[in-house]
């Protein structure tokens, strides 16, 4: 039982999980303080420490403090665009870690579509320049230049002084091309390798080709991608001739079989079974034979069991090789001496996996101990349990893990990003070090490893650029380009050596990764379809078995469990966090806060076969295990409708005699209860800058910063009343769910009622609903200065949502572009159609477009520009709905 305490305004001020609630002396897992206007001023977390924020008049972040004594300041221009970011570690001087410059209104900027756009960004990794934008907002040319030093910069005001801090002559330019719909059709990386993409008429990926800079013609990496009626990938052909087919259960759209064949030889044949809730019960690889070893029958089947909270409690399968108890990894050249294994998992009431019992040849079971009043956990070493002093030494004030194993120290930067690991510490002489540098978006830009030998310091470096990694090694002299291509369901990495390792002769190598439903790389193939390596995993990501054809070749495999990069430290890099697979936990608290519950270290809700975490923020179901995504819109049929302003039901009925409407179909909605949601921040769940760019890019409108104010549900109600002049109407706490959960004011400010019941599902925050609402209201923000809908439309209640319907139609497109595989949720898009929860709102606009009554370009122009849709008097919307019901496809 999770206990929440609310203030008089219904905002959650204290929350305790089922573990701490039983201890009268325990603090709340999360305590939150609010301003009088409902803004979050401070949070105190037993896992992540405390934070205090100072916000400006438009809710922009002005200054932040945290438990480590760190401070951060933001400066803005008169348009509330970020100008500079300053940071200060405790007892250190303040430094400028970011600066921004935007395009002006001069002819030079106009000729490159830079007006009002970000054109220079100096961040902790170096400088990014955006030299060219497309007419619909996409970046056509961007350049990344890195700092000379690995240390965090202190950017001066003058750009010439900033340029002096950068590496000379190392500009890495990436160029992109788009079609008229804003889809990427070509991208040229910093080494002039060119990727080419082609789409189907419905906008789905059909083919990917790559032309390496040294070649004269592109080669096909994947082609003939086919989709089923729900938009799920059904078949694809890789460039090495391997054909992959995917089968889905007709009743729920879940993946039932994943088959990859080279000719008639199956390379991968995964077959899935689920329980009624969608948890994976078994996975069989029918491409593997049944084997017998040491008096055991070893079947290529893994089976899983769950408790009532859907936490994994038991797993069986097969394994080979030695135990993996820490960062080191042993490749198992010969998996023939294999055996069955069984793992059982025991959790405390807070969701901490405290004991893993392993029965099998690897025998790597272990125990963890949780700190008395937090979810910070440390392992038991040689039977000795950690004490309170060990926890103080093992974590910093923000909850970041400080050592992997005794002697292996972790260091964190001011943004709680892993900065440095010392895998080998020496009493005499320098330590081995691995350092990481990140960009302003939190993504890793550099990885530098320094290894000490008897006489030399060997330096290995990786530089991460869009779709390209540049790898160098001072010891071997190797200079390697790794071109990354996401082609269909698999990842293709092309290894191109500018300079081969010492005394080695190599040529370009194309490595095709066949992944399982979680995205884990289970099979690597070369350009002829021959196996390079195979790997099987235990449920939480440790290696169960590994087979390779050559030790040198397999050394270039970096993407493993969940398709993430495994560092030499043994940590998996997910983007916003690092995962410790041998502890089944994250190395730091969730930077998104309680998006996944009150335990900020728990991995995918302890259900690693059914859920994935794509970036280290929140678990989701893989696309293959989710309900079918919305189907692609069919091409509009020939227009036969009467386009006169007056709607004629008889003429339209006649013209639609042969037309069957296929609506956008989403999962059934969950109706909100009356309990307030826990408070949250829009910026924790939505990248507002990316959202503005996506809307601008998708609809060809000028990009401008979206102004969002997070307020309590009650404050939102009062704000609406202050505009409508209905101040005498009071907020009814007994009918919370009937009050609006968000609103965009006539002045263009988006108000999010963050404590509204709409944002919770089963006591937890509904991330899809939060993101859907922010996207929906942001569409209103972009169009609030122009109303092209209500004029000329009658005011009957059945017609009054015309504007909302069109907003939902456009917002669903934006949502799918930003969060593919997730479900768009708003009340307007969950209206009853044809006797069931077939989402209506945006379908009204879709039906009018598909049936030829109005073109999508007309709708977009009327929404964002100066046009108007044809008047719709006399209950016209009601008639349109009736027509859609009569013509809805039953297929």
Automatic annotation (TrEMBL):
Q: Which InterPro entries match?
A: Rhs_assc_core, T6SS_VgrG/RHS
Instruction: Kindly provide the name given to this protein in its UniProt entry.
Output: Uncharacterized protein
Source organism, top-level taxon = Bacteria
| Organism the protein comes from | Pseudomonas silesiensis
Q: Where is this region: Disordered?
A: 620-649
According to the UniProt entry, which residue ranges have a biased composition of type Pro residues? 627-639
Could you tell me which Gene3D superfamilies the record lists for this protein? RHS repeat-associated core
């Amino acid at each position: 039982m999770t206990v929440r305490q609310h203030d008089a305004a219904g905002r959650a001020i204290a929350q305790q999980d089922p573990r701490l609630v039983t201890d009268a002396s325990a603090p709340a897992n999360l305590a939150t303080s609010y301003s009088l206007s409902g803004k979050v001023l401070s949070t105190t977390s037993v896992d992540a420490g405390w934070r205090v924020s100072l916000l400006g008049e438009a809710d922009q972040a002005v200054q932040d403090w945290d438990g480590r004594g760190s401070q951060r300041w933001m400066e803005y221009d008169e348009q509330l665009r970020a100008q500079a970011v300053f940071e200060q570690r405790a007892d250190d001087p303040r430094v400028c870690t970011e600066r921004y410059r935007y395009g002006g209104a001069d002819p030079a900027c106009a000729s490159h579509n830079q007006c009002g756009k970000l054109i220079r960004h100096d961040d902790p990794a170096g400088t990014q320049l955006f030299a060219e934008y497309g007419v619909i907002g996409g970046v056509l040319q961007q350049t990344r230049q890195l700092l000379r030093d690995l240390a965090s910069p202190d950017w001066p005001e003058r750009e010439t002084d900033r340029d002096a801090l950068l590496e000379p002559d190392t500009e890495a330019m990436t160029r992109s091309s788009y079609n008229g719909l804003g889809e990427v059709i070509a991208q040229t990386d910093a080494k002039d390798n060119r990727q080419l993409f082609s789409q189907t008429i419905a906008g789905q990926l059909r083919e990917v080709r790559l032309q390496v800079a040294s070649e004269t013609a592109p080669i096909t990496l994947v082609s003939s991608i086919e989709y089923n009626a729900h938009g799920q990938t059904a078949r694809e052909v890789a460039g090495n001739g391997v054909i992959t087919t995917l089968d889905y259960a007709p009743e729920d759209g879940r993946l039932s079989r994943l088959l990859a064949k080279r000719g008639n030889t199956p390379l991968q044949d995964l077959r899935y079974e689920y329980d009624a809730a969608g948890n994976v019960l078994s996975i069989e690889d029918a491409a593997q034979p049944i084997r017998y070893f040491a008096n055991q029958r070893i079947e290529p089947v893994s089976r899983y069991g769950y408790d009532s909270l859907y936490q994994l409690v038991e797993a069986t399968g097969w394994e080979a090789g030695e135990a993996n108890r820490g960062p080191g990894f042993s490749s198992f050249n010969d998996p023939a001496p294999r055996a069955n294994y069984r793992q059982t998992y025991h959790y405390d009431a807070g969701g901490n996996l405290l004991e893993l019992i392993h029965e099998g040849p690897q025998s790597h079971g272990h125990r963890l101990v949780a700190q008395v009043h937090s979810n910070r956990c440390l392992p038991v070493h040689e039977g000795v349990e950690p004490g309170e002093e060990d926890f103080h030494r093992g974590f910093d004030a923000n909850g970041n893990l400080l050592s992997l194993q005794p002697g292996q120290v972790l260091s964190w930067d001011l943004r709680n990003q892993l900065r440095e690991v010392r895998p080998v510490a020496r009493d005499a002489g320098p330590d081995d070090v691995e350092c990481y540098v990140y960009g302003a978006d939190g993504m890793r830009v550099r990885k530098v490893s320094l290894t000490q030998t008897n006489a030399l310091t060997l330096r290995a470096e990786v530089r991460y650029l869009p779709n390209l990694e540049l790898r160098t090694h001072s010891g071997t002299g190797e200079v390697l380009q790794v071109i990354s291509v996401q082609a269909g369901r698999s990842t293709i990495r092309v290894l191109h050596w500018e300079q081969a390792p010492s005394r080695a002769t190599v040529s370009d190598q194309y490595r095709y990764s066949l992944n399982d439903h979680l995205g884990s790389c289970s099979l690597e193939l070369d350009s002829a379809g021959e196996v390079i390596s195979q790997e099987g995993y235990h449920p939480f990501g440790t290696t169960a078995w590994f087979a390779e054809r050559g030790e040198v070749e397999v050394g270039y495999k970096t993407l493993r469990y969940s398709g993430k990069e495994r560092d030499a430290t043994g940590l998996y890099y997910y983007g916003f966090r690092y995962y410790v697979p041998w502890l089944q936990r994250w190395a730091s608290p969730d930077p998104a806060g309680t998006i996944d519950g009150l335990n900020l270290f728990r991995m995918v809700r302890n259900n690693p076969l059914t859920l994935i975490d794509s970036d280290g923020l929140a678990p989701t179901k893989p696309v293959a295990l989710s309900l079918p995504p919305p189907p692609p819109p069919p091409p509009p049929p020939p227009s036969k409708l009467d386009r006169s302003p007056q709607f004629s039901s008889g003429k339209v009925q006649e013209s639609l005699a042969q037309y069957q409407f296929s609506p956008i179909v989403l999962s059934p909605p969950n109706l909100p209860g009356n309990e307030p949601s826990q408070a949250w921040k829009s910026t924790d769940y939505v990248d507002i800058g990316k959202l503005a760019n996506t809307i601008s890019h998708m609809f060809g409108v000028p990009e401008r910063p979206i102004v969002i104010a997070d307020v309590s549900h009650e404050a939102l109600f009062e704000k609406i009343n202050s505009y409508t002049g209905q101040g005498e109407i009071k907020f009814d706490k007994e009918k919370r769910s009937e009050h609006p959960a968000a609103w965009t004011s006539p002045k263009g400010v988006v108000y999010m009622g963050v404590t509204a019941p709409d944002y919770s599902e089963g006591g937890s925050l509904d991330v899809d609903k939060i993101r859907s609402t922010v996207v929906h209201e942001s569409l209103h923000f972009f169009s609030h200065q122009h109303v092209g809908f209500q004029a000329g439309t009658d005011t009957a209640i059945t017609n009054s949502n015309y504007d909302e319907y069109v907003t939902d139609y456009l917002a669903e497109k934006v949502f799918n572009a930003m969060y593919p595989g997730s479900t768009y949720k708003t009340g307007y898009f969950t209206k009853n159609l044809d006797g069931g929860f077939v989402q209506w709102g945006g379908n009204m606009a879709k039906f009018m477009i598909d049936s030829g009554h109005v073109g999508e370009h007309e709708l977009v122009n009327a929404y964002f520009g100066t046009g108007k849709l044809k008047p719709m008097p006399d209950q016209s919307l009601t008639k349109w709905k009736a027509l859609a019901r009569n013509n809805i496809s039953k297929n």
